[in-house]
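Consider the tokenized backbone below.
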């Protein structure tokens, strides 16, 4: 874990090295001040030699200014190194997430990934700055101050050793307790972020069902869980202060009592006793800093483990050693394909023994009840998941042999959940082809029946889309996503229930446009409405992850009971495949 995190300093390594160097210089110069003060008292004031007072006073001023400069440089480079580490960690995590397959992403909640990229990285950033400065400053101060104390006070310095043992024992008891609590805190943070994200993204549904009180209570519970654990952890950490003060005042009393006797006995000078008081504070302040560092490191350890978990996650779908770079055509073949989301073999297969042979340029309709694995089936074609058994070929080549980017460029998928990004309509469309001209974008929109509503916007294709596409309707969002997919000029186009929010007349226009404009593209259309697929070359009926029927509309009406039943129910106006009335 330490190796993984420290390797992310990257271009900020020099700043990370300069920070402790300047910190050590700062400490050495600071510890020289009590020595110079002792000379001022013993050689100057008590001896009545003002020239020595001026000499050592001048040296103190120079040492103080030099210490101040080194401290400022150490703080500057420490901030640069820690913030740079945070930036690199976030970039590395985000880049790693981009390589994840759906199965990798399924292991983490969206809120959990957001917490790792924000709160966890901030904790590591704060800890790294403390480690670079305090974790260097405190031990150097402690060792040097103890050494000087033994040189000056001899056995009197054993008072400091007793304080160190007391505080060290306390920290050994404290830190494991606090560490476990903060592990729990970050899990509660995930739940808190999930509550916020879910509420904001579904705010229209919340208001439509008047569920604001329920959502407020849910958020309050999540916030209280974080609060409760934080109070418990901070309550334990707060014990550090009284223990520290006990050690400080005990040392002061001990040194005052024993040191005064030594001064009276003539074995210790007044200047050296003053020195010892300075070193008391140096030793105990360094112990306090160390305790703060240990607490911060304990907190950040939980965060660092969560960060490293993401960085260490290996994409389950990767390119082969010598990938195929060209997709010959849009033909698709499923050869005894089975699939389970649980890769260890204990999960029930979602798809079982699927055998299909689809010719390039065909239009294939896919229908089935909820949970029949329609979306899963088409996800395997572009390798969003890998098959558990069997193989899938596109263009006559197993999809696992293709370069992933090349395959996905030729297999365009309009997913069931349509997503638009903040930006203009043109910027969203060019996700399909970043080099597409304005005219190509308009043509794609005409095919998707989106041009007609875009032209009605005051800014046309430069209309700004809010985050998540909240300022366009569901049907408009679907048509923009279809147009975006068409700009890829794919060999295979998959529409996963992508016209469910448009009326049947517009749906028919889109299908007719596809037949004329992209006849060579293989089109897979998942739909609940029979009317959306009945003109397809062939129709696939799925039932509980198995092929129940595959043929033309007429053939299935004669041979397939499920298809016939659904067709009859929809002719009578009862709705989609799942017979839920009133859905668009």
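A designed sequence for it:
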């Amino acid at each position: 874990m330490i190796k993984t995190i420290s390797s992310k300093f990257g271009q900020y390594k020099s700043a990370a090295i300069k920070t402790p160097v300047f910190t050590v210089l700062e400490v050495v110069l600071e510890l020289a001040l009590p020595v110079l003060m002792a000379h001022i008292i013993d050689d100057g004031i008590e001896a009545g030699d003002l020239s020595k007072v001026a000499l050592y006073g001048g040296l103190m001023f120079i040492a103080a200014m030099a210490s101040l400069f080194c401290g400022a440089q150490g703080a500057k480079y420490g901030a640069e190194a820690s913030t740079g580490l945070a930036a690199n960690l976030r970039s590395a995590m985000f880049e790693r997430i981009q390589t994840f397959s759906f199965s990798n992403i399924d292991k983490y909640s969206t809120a959990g990934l957001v917490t790792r990229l924000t709160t966890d990285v901030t904790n590591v950033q704060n800890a790294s700055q403390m480690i670079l400065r305090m974790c260097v400053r405190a031990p150097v101060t402690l060792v040097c101050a103890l050494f000087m104390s033994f040189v000056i006070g001899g056995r009197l310095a054993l008072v400091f050793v007793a304080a160190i043992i007391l505080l060290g024992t306390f920290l050994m008891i404290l830190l494991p307790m606090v560490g476990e609590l903060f592990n729990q805190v970050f899990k509660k943070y995930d739940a808190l972020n999930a509550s916020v994200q879910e509420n904001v993204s579904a705010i229209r549904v919340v208001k439509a069902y008047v569920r604001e009180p329920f959502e407020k209570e849910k958020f309050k519970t999540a916030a209280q869980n974080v609060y409760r654990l934080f109070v418990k952890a901070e309550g334990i950490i707060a014990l550090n202060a009284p223990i520290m003060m006990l050690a400080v005042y005990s040392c002061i009393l001990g040194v005052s009592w024993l040191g005064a006797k030594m001064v009276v006995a003539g074995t210790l000078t007044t200047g050296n006793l003053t020195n010892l008081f300075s070193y008391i504070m140096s030793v105990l302040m360094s112990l306090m800093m160390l305790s703060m560092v240990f607490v911060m490191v304990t907190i950040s350890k939980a965060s660092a483990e969560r960060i490293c978990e993401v960085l260490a996650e290996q994409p389950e779908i990767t390119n082969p050693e010598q990938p195929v770079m060209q997709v010959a055509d849009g033909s698709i073949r499923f050869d005894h394909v089975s699939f389970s989301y649980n890769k260890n073999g204990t999960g029930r297969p979602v798809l079982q023994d699927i055998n299909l042979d689809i010719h390039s340029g065909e239009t294939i309709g896919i229908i089935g009840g909820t949970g029949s694995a329609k979306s899963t089936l088409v996800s395997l074609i572009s390798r969003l998941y890998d098959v558990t058994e069997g193989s899938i070929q596109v263009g006559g080549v197993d999809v696992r042999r293709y370069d992933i980017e090349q395959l996905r460029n030729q297999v365009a998928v309009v997913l069931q959940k349509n997503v638009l990004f903040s930006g203009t309509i043109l910027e969203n469309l060019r996700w399909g082809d970043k080099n597409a001209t304005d005219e190509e974008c308009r043509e794609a929109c005409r095919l998707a029946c989106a041009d007609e509503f875009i032209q009605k916007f005051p800014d046309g294709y430069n209309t700004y889309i809010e985050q998540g596409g909240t300022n366009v309707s569901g049907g408009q969002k679907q048509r923009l996503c279809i147009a975006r997919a068409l700009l890829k000029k794919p060999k295979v186009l998959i529409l996963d229930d992508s016209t469910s929010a448009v009326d049947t007349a517009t749906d028919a226009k889109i299908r007719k446009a596809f037949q004329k404009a992209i006849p060579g593209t293989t089109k897979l259309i998942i739909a609940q409405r029979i009317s959306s697929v009945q003109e397809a070359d062939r129709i696939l009926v799925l039932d509980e992850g198995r092929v129940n029927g595959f043929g033309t509309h007429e053939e299935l009406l004669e041979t397939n009971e499920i298809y016939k039943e659904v067709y009859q129910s929809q002719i009578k106006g009862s709705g989609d495949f799942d017979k839920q009335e009133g859905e668009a």
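The mean pLDDT is 83.
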